[in-house]
Amino acid sequence: MQLGRRSLGAVLLTLGLVTLVLFTAALAIGPAGETALAAVPAREAGYAAVPAGAADDTRPPTRPAGPRPCPVPLVPTPTGYASICWDPSTDDTGVVGYDLYRLDVGGFVSAATTAGTIGGFSGELNRLYTMYVVARDAAGNVSPPSTLITVPATLGMTPTSSPSPPPGDRVPPSKPTGLRDACLQDYRGVTFCWQPSSDNVAVTAYDVYRETATTYTKVGTIPPSGFLNFTEPGLVTGQRYSYVVVARDAADNLSAPSDPLSALAREGLPSPSPSPTSGPSCTVSYRAATWSSRLNAEITVRNTGTTAIDGWTLTVDYPASAVRLISGWSADWTQTGARLAGTSKRWNEIIPAGSATQVGFTASYSGPLPAPVSFGLNGGTCATG
């Protein structure tokens, strides 16, 4: 009797084990014989969590706004840390991260990536760093760049002992100021000028950056001169472009960027067509901008006659010897005593009747700002107006 009971128990135990195996298999197999989601490895299940439609998303996140200095409470490096924070961007499928870019001598380089709205990188204590941030979504769309911000590398919010500064020049040039659009009216494209920066040693170059859809691109380097002017051709006429200028010295110290300038791409003055001349009749308008002891003169020469002027020399007479010519544009400039003379270039030597051309020069002066006493063209006198 006891043997029969033991045999019956063994049979029931075997049936229970078989049922458990079948039930487990049913959980792992879908209705069509496919493996259920529960069996997907954790890594692949993470891809399944990507928002629906992200692969077809072409709309970038909004520009990160409000960048500001945000020293971290505990600096991860004893040499200094530059960090900022910003307001979160928005996106139709969701922002997945932010990329931080730092300005180096060669341009902007990737400095950090973060999922939050604070980011930074190791740097040299008390040195200034210029940076911007962009947002990314799951489809890889990148937002427009934030405004530029310049912050020093610090040791965090808690005061600590400062290490000795490294030897050599660590003083950056001053921030470029006075950016002004359309300094060369006859140029086709963008042209602007600015006032020189100062430095404890000397400024060696100015780097010009233009804002694009996702970054700030270096578009030119200008050497120091009496007339700091940048030109860029090949742009869409009538469209505005945003620029900043950064000064640097021989030790590759970089200034804070200038305030942004919105510059208009212009079509320039029309190319004149040749026609015979019978003698010049002209009016001249004169405008001078000054800084320090220098002036930047812009002169518009208008042909008020009935026939074209084919080849010309413009003379500008100042009182005594109040000015000294430094450089000029849109003409070949010379100086004899108190007279400055500009001879036409091949491309602007013809001024049709009723048309005008623009020229200019940079000169130094002493005392009060001098004003020209007369203007002449090809030996005749031009009216002013």
Task: List its traits.
FN3_dom; disordered N terminus; single chain; 5-stranded mixed beta sheet; 9% helix; Immunoglobulin-like; 385 residues; glycosidase; mainly beta; polysaccharide binding; FN3_sf; 5-stranded antiparallel beta sheet
Protein model, in words:
Helix content is 9%, strand content 41%. 29% of the residues are buried. The chain has helices at 2-28, 42-48, and strands at residues 65-69, 81-87, 95-104, 107-114, 118-122, 128-137, 149-152, 177-181, 190-195, 203-211, 216-222, 228-232, 240-249, 261-264, 282-291, 294-303, 309-310, 313-317, 323-329, 332-336, 339-343, 350-351, 356-365, 374-377, 380-381, 383-384. It folds into four domains: 2-49; 56-152, Sandwich (Immunoglobulin-like), CATH 2.60.40.10; 177-264, Immunoglobulins (Immunoglobulin-like, Sandwich); 282-384, Sandwich (Immunoglobulin-like), CATH 2.60.40.290. The chain is mainly β and 385 residues long.
Distance between the termini: 132 Å
Outline type? elongated
CATH top level assignment of the largest domain: Mainly Beta
The main β sheet shows up as: 5 strands, mixed
CATH architecture of the largest domain: Sandwich
Strand order of the largest sheet: 19-23-16-15-26
Structural class: mainly beta
Structurally, the number of domains stands at 4
Output the radius of gyration: 35 Å
Weakly predicted, low-confidence segments:
1-6, 10-48, 274-279
